[in-house]
UniProtKB/TrEMBL annotation, chains A, B:
DNA-binding region per UniProt: 28-47
Coiled-coil annotated residue ranges, if any: none
Domain HTH tetR-type stretches: 5-65
Keyword Transcription regulation attributed: yes
Organism, as annotated: Flavobacterium arundinis
Keyword terms of this UniProt record: DNA-binding, Transcription, Transcription regulation
Keyword DNA-binding: yes
PROSITE patterns noted in UniProt: HTH_TETR_2
Name of the featured protein: TetR/AcrR family transcriptional regulator
SUPFAM superfamilies the UniProt entry points to: Homeodomain-like, Tetracyclin repressor-like, C-terminal domain
InterPro entries found in the cross-reference section: Homeodomain-like_sf, HTH_TetR, Tet_transcr_reg_TetR-rel_C_sf, TetR_C
DNA sequence: TGTATAGTATACCGATTGGTATAATTTTGC
DNA sequence: GCAAAATTATACCAATCGGTATACTATACA
């Protein structure tokens, strides 16, 4: 790992929470230099511009959540319990550093959908990956006869993700956990319904 | 209605879609002058600053959606059908001018929660109002014996709103309606479950 | 209709925006 | 330990940011 690669990683790690909290338009280059302690020259020596930093920061944020999910899923053998990992994580998302400014998928989607194609694409891909992760758990669960055969798994994933992201939004903006908990409870009900 | 009041209204109407699409940080004063055809002097003669325009724009956007909901609800006598008004509207939210850039509640919540207290408060209040509107329909439905007694109406509202907003986010960022439809179907199921 | 006032436009302000050219400094391979 | 290359800092750029002072113009009321 060369020096520049380390610096690049350092910049990403320091700015990722920033982008997640303040958004792409709300994060300035001086925010970036301030957070890293580096100068513009150094930033631009490692990235083509603000865009590239933001894109890398999103990947970092999404990757963090993904690795936590993966790790916790591995600890649970049953498909239904694997799906409930999402509920455990997002029920207390404020406690997770990676989700401090809210869910990066939600934040990026909402900001970028009408303003920033590259970021929008990243967010869209992230959702695709999320869909696939859920469907994969369902498929495995079906093979083990833990999950019912007779329901549309794509439909399940869509409503499931919507509940989680909607719940996160409610918690962040109201400052209360009522809405999030209600959404999580509903999502849990959905899981219990597809589990035999 | 004085001239200035007309101009003020004109500015709000022209910039409200802008703020909903590009967000607070993403909308500049030149965006505002461009959209209205007016000059900065005129904007600042009617508003104290960008903040005040944004706040008024949010009220306008939220009010538009609210009035559509109210109108359509009035056409339906049954409580369950009143609740389904939200599903009808958000299922095809792209067709509604007021929801062109997505749901203003969602957009504003996600952007402002960590960056703009006044806007955050407005979004939070909007959600409060939404909660109350749902609870009011439920209460009325219960009095008419159309809605079951034995469930937590706040919990219902929280999950219901989360589903809708999550679904809108999915539709906007993926460009496909699958996720939104799945969320709406789940929300409809929720309504059917509380209706006798 | 004249005049006070309300409303709008012009021209400017300092600060900050994202970005770059170049100089100074580290790393790196030999 | 030295030279070449890679990396970081400095100093600057034009453009734009939100905002203001002031001059002009339209409106409203006597």
């Amino acid at each position: 790992m060369t020096k520049a690669e380390k610096t690049r990683q350092f910049i990403i790690e320091k700015t990722a929470p920033l982008f997640n909290r303040k958004g792409y338009a709300g994060t300035s280059l001086s925010d970036i230099t301030e957070a890293t302690g580096l100068t513009k020259g150094s930033i631009y020596g490692n990235f083509a511009g603000k865009d590239e930093v933001a894109l890398a920061a999103f990947d970092h944020n999404f990757g963090l959540v993904g690795s936590i999910v993966k790790k916790r899923m591995a600890e649970r053998p049953k498909a239904a319990d694997k799906l409930k990992v999402y509920l455990d994580i997002y029920s207390e998302f404020m406690k997770l550093p990676a989700l401090n400014g809210g869910c990066p998928v939600l934040n990026t989607s909402v900001e970028a959908d009408d303003t920033h194609d590259a970021l929008k694409q990243k967010a869209s891909n992230a959702i695709d990956a999320w869909y696939k992760a859920i469907q994969s758990v369902i498929k495995e669960g079906r093979e083990k006869k833990e999950i019912r055969q007779k329901f549309d798994e794509k439909e399940f994933a869509g409503a499931f993700i919507a509940l989680i992201e909607g719940g996160v939004m409610l918690a962040k903006v109201t400052g209360k956990t009522g809405g999030l908990k209600a959404a999580m409870k509903q999502a849990e009900k959905m899981i219990d319904e597809i589990a035999k």
